[in-house]
Amino acid sequence: MSYSDQIAHLSQLIKGFNGTWDGIDAESAARMQLQNRFRTGLDIARYTAKIMRQDMAAYDADPANYTQSLGCWHGFIAQQKMIAIKKHFGSTKQRYLYLSGWMVAALRSDFGPLPDQSMHEKTSVPALIEELYTFLKQADARELGMMFRDLDAARKAGDQIKAKQLLTAIDNYETHVVPIIADIDAGFGNAEATYLLAKKMIEAGACALQIENQVSDEKQCGHQDGKVTVPHEDFLAKIRACRYAFLEMGVEDGIIVARTDSLGAGLTKQIAFSREPGDIGDQYNSFLDCEEIADIAQANGDVIINRGGKLMRPKRLPSNLFQFRPGTGEDRCVLDCITSLQNGADLLWIETEKPHIEQIAGMVDRIRQVIPNAKLVYNNSPSFNWTLNFRQQVFDRWQSEGKDVSAYDRAKLMSVDYDGTDLAAEADEKIRTFQRDAAKRAGIFHHLITLPTYHTAALSTDNLAREYFGEAGMLGYVLNVQRQEIRQGIACVKHQNMSGSDIGDDHKEYFAGEAALKAGGIHNTMNQFAA
User: Fold this and answer.
1) Which phi and psi angles does 478 have, rounded to 5°?
2) Looking at residue 19, what is its pLDDT?
3) How far apart are CA 85 and CA 91, in angstroms?
4) Residue 224 pLDDT > 80
5) Alpha helix (H) residue ranges in 35-159
6) Which residues are catalytic?
């Protein structure tokens, strides 16, 4: 329904109440409806799931159509990110949000900062999803509100051409509400616990859930040691739990991202149940590090398995965990991915220890032999030292090509002394094109940075504290913050407007007419930023 049609519809509705609703202005009500397009989180989940499905199909047609996101730990951060994207690129197309369990644990838990080990309150995850979308919806309301004010001004000035342009812009308005890929960790318990939390996350607006194959009560950050995986059947039960949650909530095209941590996980808590040789449980157990037992009497208190007609004792640690054979990580990742896609997952996430395109592509090539349209979500992690990794990759390639690398110390390539070198320049170019190249070569549909806004908040605060509490004093804020906000057109330089003051003034006028006591008069200091 167009803006004009909406006004006409509401006018008829108001007339039907025999004068008792005559104090309601149809156009004002239409504006409020447009400013609140999404009534519930489920409306958001259904809308954004369709966007992701369309983007996935576009990527299958051409890998240049990859998508991106940044992790956001507060609604304001997400809001400013999407406002910036619309300002700089004119569209939110192919740009998403990512919700990182790491940042929820570190920044949003009532316990205070916690490591990424699923110790934070599980309810804090859907609460953050709801908060993110609350701020994005407010960004819509703010921007549309400014367009409505411009429309009123054009009408008052008799500028019909401007008014018509604004009406067209209103009818074709692009929302700040975009898909979110939300981290449900390892499900925070058994499959039933996963299902219950998934429902809450979907109700809050999540169209895509990312779940990993670690043991939920031993869960570790993907880039730390000590990770423990579960047998495939346990993980598949949680994938099914997520799908049931989507279907129950009426989000029939919801997306499940199956993450494997097997590349860096050398341990398992249990031996898989196997019904017959070669089944998925038997394949999982085939990776166990075992030693042959010649005499059963030697195996007091041990677990024994049959492997190829031989009695084998899996190596068990004092922690009661079993270990996998060294060097099996990639094979386990490939099996994890194929099994997940064959049992209802939509996208894959392979957690790696470094950003190396050929390493990722080698696994994806094997997966695509079975499932040709397999595609990944990939963590462009701040846990990687990108500068050192890519300089070393260039060093290794140059060395293999016979180039002279005697001027470089491979172990010290992070040094500022190398910043102006040809090697550093080539490495930076590889970093710049990493997402594009990996999307084309390694099947990566979605690139995200898990914790970028955690680091930018720390860096900007450090810079401000150094200047403000030092010799620069107030100039440290004015020069490096406010003056830059003004000159770069940062929306929140008018922080009263950003927080909703003008929206509130509009509502006061709708509700009370000329009696409204508004905050945006001539004495509002935000007027100093009008230019």
Assistant:
1) -65, -45
2) 95
3) 7
4) no
5) 41-61, 75-89, 101-107, 124-156
6) 221
Query: What distances in angstroms separate CA 208 from CA 125, 135, 169, 215, 241, one per listed residue?
Result: 13, 19, 30, 21, 14
CA–CA distance, 107 with 103 (Å, rounded to integer) = 6
**Contact yes or no for 98/180 (Cβ under 8 A):** yes
Please, are residues 290 and 313 in contact by the beta-carbon 8 Å criterion?
A: yes
Both tokens assigned to 70: 């940044």
Instruction: Examine the pLDDT at 332 and tell me if it is beyond 70.
Output: yes
What are the Cα distances from residue 101, in Å, to 77, 200, 219, 363, 404? 16, 15, 11, 25, 44
Single out the residue of 299, 282, 232, 233 nearest to residue 262, CA to CA: 232
Sign of CA dihedral 438, 101, 92, 527: negative
pTM for the model? 0.93
Residue 487, SS3 per DSSP: helix
Stretch 201-219: mean pLDDT, rounded? Answer: 91
Instruction: Return the axis-axis angle of helices 191-204 and 232-248, rounded to nearest 10°.
Output: 40
Burial status of residue 263 (CB atoms within 10 A of its CB: 0-12, 13-18, 19 or more): buried
Containing 163, the helix (H) or strand (E) segment is helix 160-171
Helices (H), 343-494: 357-368, 386-400, 422-432, 434-441, 452-468, 474-477, 483-488
Distance CA 160, CA 473 (A): 50
pLDDT at 297: 75
What was the pLDDT predicted at 423?
98
Structure tokens at 31: 């504006």
Rg of the chain (C-alpha set)? 28
Residue 154 token pair:
């054009």
Asked if residue 255 lies in contact with residue 49, where contact means CB atoms within 8 angstroms, the answer is: yes
Cα dihedral 493, 495, 496, 497, rounded to 10, equals 70
Would you say the C-alpha torsion 362, 363, 369, 371 has a positive or negative sign? negative
d(CA 450, CA 378): 10
Using the structure block, give the residue that is written with the tokens 């009008």: 530
Phi, psi of 49 (to 5 degrees): -60, -40
- Sequence-ordered list of residues with C-beta below 8 angstroms from that of 332, at least 6 positions apart, any chain: 229, 260, 262, 263, 287, 324
Structure-token pair, residue 310: 């031989």
Q: Which amino acid is at 509?
A: E
User: What rounded mean pLDDT belongs to the chain?
Assistant: 93
Q: Residue 17: what residue type?
A: F
Whether 186 and 176 have beta carbons less than 8 Å apart is answered as no
Helix H, strand E, coil C: the string for 211-262 is EECECHHHCCCCCCCCCEECCHHHHHHHHHHHHHHHHHCCCCCCEEEEEECC
Q: Please give the single-letter amino acid code of residue 122.
A: K
Q: What is the mean pLDDT of residues 100-121?
A: 90
Listed residue (122, 124, 245) closest to 187, CA to CA: 122
Burial class of residue 5 (count of CB atoms within 10 Å of its CB; 0-12, 13-18, 19+): exposed
Tell me the per-residue pLDDT of 288-301, one tens digit each, with 9 for 90 and over. Answer: 999 988 877 777 77
